[in-house]
User: Fold this.
Amino acid sequence: MSSKGAYLILTHVHQPINKGPDKGKMQTHETCEFVDRYKRKHLQGSTIIMDVVKREFIKNTYRQDGLSYDQVEEHVIKGYADKYAKFLELVNAPIPEALLLEKEEVEELIEQGRKEE
Assistant:
């Protein structure tokens, strides 16, 4: 299906809430995968497929809402920073500045905690 590469795949499933105070409202379940090949099932069922080396979309069902690559990447960094960083390092893809800054902030907090002990 696809040539070997480095892809981030986001899938969103929307389901109604059947019980409790939010009954009748919709909830969204998100799945994030990091793969070297995407399959037909990914093209059919995913919301977004990103080529992290070329930094471009293969599929973006939110494009009509104006959702950019950088906005999706920011969302991924917020929710999956460690896994995303490891994947980018593994595939020798560029590390976004936001991910580096966040990592530095975490390291700074760890250092401050050590000084207080």
